[in-house]
Specification:
Blueprint lengths: L10 E5 L4 E6 L8 H10 L13 E7 L2 E7 L1 H10 L1 H4 L4 H11 L8 H14 L5 H21 L5 E3 H17 L5 H18 L5 H5 L11 H22 L8 H11 L7 H32 L1 H15 L13 H13 L6 E4 L4 E3 L2 E3 L4 E4 L1 H4 L41 H16 L2 E5 L7 E3 L3 E3 L4 E6 L1
Parallel strand pairs: 4-9
Antiparallel strand pairs: 1-2, 3-4, 5-13, 6-9, 7-8, 10-13, 11-12
Helix pairs in contact: 6-7, 6-16, 7-8, 7-12, 8-10, 10-12, 12-14, 12-16, 13-14
The structure holds protoporphyrin IX containing FE.
Length: 468
């Protein structure tokens, strides 16, 4: 019945001798009706954009009582995210409502005083200056996965998304929380968050009908089970620290000390849990998605894979990479940056205008849904050469994208707090594994990129790991 109003777009993928256009939905030529839009948004937030949105510009349309503004030009991105950030600091009710059950008032969705008080605390904890302290653990955990892959029966296939999530969950658990998570707990978080994404309603009807705060989402059984599975693991880690059983240098220990020293910060146990959950989720899910897309692109672009292998062999000469090598691996970095362009793990940055504003010639209403969409911006035909092609070379040497046209970590005061952590971790993990292995997807046909909260391949990425 619903298929009368909505049919998903076909997924396009194209490969040749020396080019690869990775999977993406065919842009729509005609707009969807209201019902179609609502069904499509529930299914996949990046699935139904029109051909015109794959060019830079600003578009405004209405859904029921709500103005929706698509901010897809560098100068407008700067306006919303940087110069007028105060008006757009608040996340959209869609996003807040979708995540509050899992993250409470954690930094990713908080604003105002709570955000101002806690941003420096959280940013300090994962700051790039602390990277040297995190390095040995990142190296150990990535090396341990390489050892597990080496011991695995050749020919077995695995879900690369789950594999990468286990890797990044273990890294965040050990570096930031100072506790070994173990495969069982890591799997609980991964499957819990997968379940949560599957059941979460990322389309908030109440907001479009006029409620500025949106409606609380329906806590279906699947959603509750997903959230509970994640929270159980986080609670155990937090409780261990509160009982004085944590690592001295860990993030939670720093927060626990800060809490004792500065009661005015209002960092109660609830806040500790929420910030821990936020760092945990923001810090592993994104990097796992990035690495999964990276394997998919490399497997289909043998010339890029070859260039990466040559760099790894030249620079490392067979020894396992360390964090200090990351600066000397420009091609590995370019592969990661190009993957972030084509598959930004957070493909939509959604905000709610706290007052009226004027953006170029456009009047923005108070309460409008304002969307900066890296998925579109990074594929804008007038901003990028061959925007749909996978071409790591575009990030080599002095060449940099035009300012505000490339924002996989957002930009402005709310820029990703873990940018340096995530980039370094991704390059190190890629180098450690690609040095010894190739990943070969086994599914027939293209994968479908789907965004409900983060951008993932629908049904994961089933692949075989082959020794190089
Ligand atoms: C490749 C990896 C990553 C990507 C692409 C990424 C991307 C992003 C983006 C786009 C935002 C802003 C969202 C918005 O404005 O709506 C964000 C925020 C955030 N990220 Fe990341 N992230 C990554 C890794 C990490 C890591 C490793 C950590 C922690 C260790 C982290 C912690 C955070 C936090 C705490 C925020 C909220 C910041 C705030 O609102 O003040 N992220 N991330």
């Amino acid at each position: 019945m619903l298929s009368l109003f909505y049919k998903p777009q076909p997924i396009i993928e194209e490969r040749g001798e020396s080019h690869f256009v990775p999977a993406h939905p065919l842009p729509r030529q005609k707009p969807l009706g209201l019902l179609g839009m609502a069904i499509g948004a529930r299914r996949n937030l990046i699935g139904d954009w029109m051909a015109q949105h794959y060019r830079s510009g600003v578009d405004s349309f209405r859904m029921l009582n709500r103005q929706i503004v698509v901010v897809n030009a560098p100068v407008a991105v700067k306006h919303v995210m940087v110069t007028h950030n105060a008006i757009y600091e608040r996340k959209s009710p869609q996003m807040r409502r979708a995540l509050e059950y899992l993250l409470g008032d954690g930094l990713f969705i908080s604003d105002g005083k709570t955000w101002q008080r806690r941003r420096p605390l959280v940013a300090d904890i994962v700051h790039k200056n602390r990277l040297p302290a995190f390095a040995p653990t990142m190296e150990d955990v990535a090396g341990a996965l390489a050892a597990r892959w080496a011991a695995r029966e050749l020919g077995d296939s695995v879900d690369m998304l789950a594999e990468m999530a286990e890797l990044t969950a273990e890294i965040i658990a050990r570096t930031v929380f100072g506790s070994q998570l173990g495969a069982k707990a890591a799997n609980q978080v991964i499957s819990g968050f997968t379940e949560y994404q599957k059941h979460v309603d990322s389309f908030n009807l109440g907001y479009f009908l006029g409620s500025d705060e949106g409606w609380a989402i329906r806590r279906s059984r699947g959603l509750r089970q997903g959230a509970e599975r994640v929270q159980k693991v986080i609670d155990e880690v937090v409780n261990r620290h509160l009982q004085g059983d944590g690592d001295d240098d860990s993030m939670l220990q720093l927060l626990v000390k800060r809490r004792a020293k500065s009661p005015e910060l209002g960092l109660d146990v609830e806040a500790l849990r929420n910030e821990a959950a936020t760092i945990f989720m923001a810090g592993h899910e994104t990097t796992a998605s990035l690495l999964t897309w990276c394997w998919y692109c490399l497997a289909n672009a043998p010339w890029a894979e070859g260039a990466l292998h040559r760099e790894l062999d030249d620079v490392l000469g067979g020894r396992p990479p360390q964090v200090s090598d990351v600066a000397n691996l420009p091609y590995a970095r370019a592969v990661i940056e190009e993957t972030l362009r084509l598959y930004p793990p957070v493909p939509i940055l959604s905000r709610q205008a706290s007052q009226t504003d004027r953006l170029g010639n456009l009047d923005i209403e108070k309460g409008a849904l304002v969307l900066v969409i890296p998925w579109l911006l990074h594929r804008a035909e007038d901003l990028w050469d061959k925007p749909r092609h996978f071409m790591p070379n575009r990030f080599l040497g002095e060449a940099r994208p035009k300012p505000y046209s490339y924002v996989p970590f957002a930009v402005g005061p709310r820029i990703c707090a873990g940018l340096a952590f995530g980039l370094t971790e991704a390059i190190l993990c890629l180098a450690t594994l690609a040095q010894r292995f190739r990943v070969r997807p086994v599914a027939e046909g293209p994968v479908e990129p789907v965004c409900r909260l983060t951008l993932r391949p629908k049904n994961g990425l089933v692949a075989r790991v082959e020794a190089r």
